[in-house]
Design a protein that fits this description.
heterodimer; A: 413 residues; alpha/beta; Rossmann fold; 2 domains; 15 helices; B: 221 residues; alpha+beta; two-stranded antiparallel sheet; 10 helices; 2 strands; 45% helix; 15% strand; elongated
Chain lengths: 413, 221
């Protein structure tokens, strides 16, 4: 077994690696292509960054293609993203035209690789039209929706479903997100990579240097939210929860650590609002981190006492799972995939308001023993359910099911 | 390993996982749940009683089937949750009987309350089903006593496969033990007293391991 697979076996268990080897054996040498719209920033890119090498290590010839476009394309796909999350967004014909033209242009470049592939996963709405643009495809094509699409704006979903319905299958993070489609819809939550820079163990020196780097006081409690500056992540709600907590725990410090994704044009505007809300409070640290600051985020999660992900909508919060993997209880918005990630009152708390977040922050800071116990349970829950070995097992199982067409029973070999 | 009885085929221990599938059917209140129960695929009912044990979740559930858990957590109707929770699938001979019982309980509750409270957004009952993914574990047992050591190390997938999924079929551990005639009758009886409905897979592993340990402690080598 290779060093990489041995490393996964040490963290996730030999059984997990054995299962991957059994599932990948019949796919050895097969061409597998992932397509999304950004190579850096955001959860999809992070997942693919680690999953693609793991798939290659298992003998599947896996590549990762990224479609690119101009401003209008990203404006359109950001609006689509917001509309799938429930915003009543009208997308103009002009923007939809840019969406279609961008996909057509990218299809011209990717067509040989895609039509020749045995297995294709198209991630999210951005590249969804590629299937229709590859008429001579020979493999199985699956659409992966990472978004909380539980209550999509109907005109936008109707438009998008015209592209999605022809796929062989689709998969969503939660049953709530599944839609009416004429193919099988699998439920596969995302995952984190325990060996990545973001999640690996760090030396004490690396962790300690974080206090100095960001001017944090190690003797005072730290609350942290790591996420893009996006209204659905509710950074203003986090600041409100911090301010409420500050009234009873004046020594509290808040770190908001975010970066941009190349396919998110709204980030700067939200960042401005966040800075405005923070005012001149020197205990609020607003960080704009580069997309490769994985070890920095890792260290920030480790120095924090409490981690928040107070999203108003969330397909699946990778930062929730990352923090839990570091033994931190997470206070998360009671929405979407976070409901699956946090077992309320056991591995963290689900909240519906800044007041709810403030209440749970204060409760945990008052009770360090509970904080520690929840952290231990959180880490075990991630180990059992949200590592990328489980995630890949389910993806390979899905394609095995499509290949086999055997009723309900999937046998890898 | 030498076989206890050369004529009896060794049991190959399998591991398994489930692949969850959305049915697209969802209920926001008890009336909708009852109506969907009339037609929902039997695999979905099986899932919400049994396959759910392999799904991510907390180890100490208050109720043992998803219908009861939903009634308690989302409809906030504890009486209904208790009635649904008492539906033990092991007491029914097939899924259709379980379906009828679920519908009876829903109807009883609807008659009593005359109304159906709607759940909040995101708290609908999501009818789900699953495929099962089978794996070889490279573990073959020819002598039942070997299970004393091996049982505590089995994956939760193996526990599910050999105790729940293959119940009363040849790969069920008790069915395999019965191939030895009356030799392990006492052991089979003790295992049969354990109702898997009321336990998580980890709990089943602990309890059955103890049954094997206690049984073979008293058996002369």
């Amino acid at each position: 077994m290779s060093d990489l697979l041995e490393a996964y076996a040490r963290v996730a268990g030999q059984d997990a690696v054995d299962q991957l080897q059994q599932l990948s054996a019949p796919m050895k040498g097969a061409k597998f292509v992932h397509v999304n719209s950004t190579r850096v920033g955001g959860g999809v890119a992070e997942i693919l960054m680690k999953m693609v090498p793991l798939m290659n290590e298992l003998g599947i010839d896996t590549s990762w293609e990224v479609i690119t476009g101009e401003d209008k394309f990203y404006q359109c796909t950001k609006s689509m993203h917001n509309a799938l999350q429930g915003d009543q967004v009208h997308i103009s014909e002009d923007l939809l035209k840019a969406y279609e033209e961008t996909n057509s242009r990218n299809a011209d470049l990717l067509r040989p690789a895609l039509e020749n592939a045995d297995y294709v996963i198209i991630h999210d709405p951005q590249p969804a039209p590629l299937l229709k643009l590859c008429p001579n495809r020979k493999g199985k094509w699956v659409w992966r929706c990472h978004i909380d699409a539980s209550n999509p704006h109907p005109p936008v979903w109707n438009y998008l479903s015209g592209y999605v319905q022809d796929y062989d299958a689709s998969f969503f993070s939660l049953a709530d997100f599944a839609q009416q489609l004429p193919h099988t819809q699998y439920l596969i939550p995302p995952s984190i990579d325990p060996l990545s820079d973001k999640n690996m163990e760090l030396s004490q020196a690396e962790i300690d240097s974080t206090y100095e780097e960001f001017n944090l006081d190690p003797k005072r409690p730290i609350m942290l939210q790591v996420s893009r500056y996006d209204r659905f992540k509710d950074p203003l709600g986090v600041i409100e929860a911090y301010k409420l907590t500050k009234q009873s725990i004046p020594e509290i410090q808040l770190v908001l650590a975010g970066g941009g994704a190349t396919d998110d044009p709204e980030g700067e505007e939200v960042l401005k609002e966040v800075r405005g809300s923070a005012g001149k409070d020197t205990d609020i640290h607003i960080l704009l981190l580069p997309s490769d600051a994985h070890k920095t985020i890792n260290a920030l999660q480790r120095v924090s006492d409490i981690v928040l992900q107070k999203s108003l909508k969330e397909g699946f919060g990778l930062t929730v799972t990352e923090a839990m993997w570091k033994g931190k209880p997470v206070i998360g918005g009671n929405t979407g995939g976070i409901r699956l990630q946090i077992i309320n009152h056991h591995t963290g708390f689900l909240v519906d308001s800044p007041q709810g977040a403030a209440l749970r922050i204060q409760q945990l800071l008052q009770d360090p023993e509970k904080l520690r116990e929840m952290g231990i349970q959180a880490k075990e829950y991630v180990r059992e359910n949200f590592l990328n070995t489980r995630h890949l097992r389910e993806i390979l199982s899905l394609f095995t099911a499509l290949d086999n067409k055997s009723k309900n029973i999937i046998k890898p070999s | 390993m030498t076989s206890k009885n050369e004529n009896i085929q060794a049991i190959k221990i399998k591991d398994c996982a489930i692949l969850n599938i959305a049915t697209g059917m969802r209920a926001k209140n008890l009336i909708e749940l009852r109506d969907l129960l009339l037609t929902i695929h039997p695999e979905s009912i099986y899932y919400h009683f049994w396959a759910k044990k392999l799904r991510p979740g907390f180890e100490e559930p208050e109720y043992y089937n998803d219908f009861a858990t939903w009634a308690a957590n989302n409809l906030h109707d504890n009486k209904l949750a208790e009635r649904l929770g008492l539906i033990n699938p092991g007491m029914f001979s097939n899924i259709e009987e379980i379906r009828s019982k679920l519908i009876d309980v829903a109807n009883l509750s609807l008659e009593e309350s005359k109304s159906a409270i709607n759940t909040k957004e995101g708290e609908q009952f999501q009818f789900t089903r699953s495929d099962i993914v089978l794996f070889d574990s490279n573990c073959m047992i020819s002598n039942p006593e070997e299970l004393t050591e091996i049982f505590p190390t089995l994956s939760l997938g193996s526990i599910y496969f050999h105790f729940i999924y293959t119940k009363n079929k040849s790969e069920d551990i008790s069915s395999w033990l019965s191939l030895f005639g009356d030799e392990y009758k006492g052991l089979i009886q003790q295992i049969s007293k354990l109702d898997p409905y009321f336990f998580t897979l980890s709990e089943i592993r602990i309890k059955v391991s103890q049954i094997f340990k206690d049984y073979f402690k008293g058996v002369p080598k």
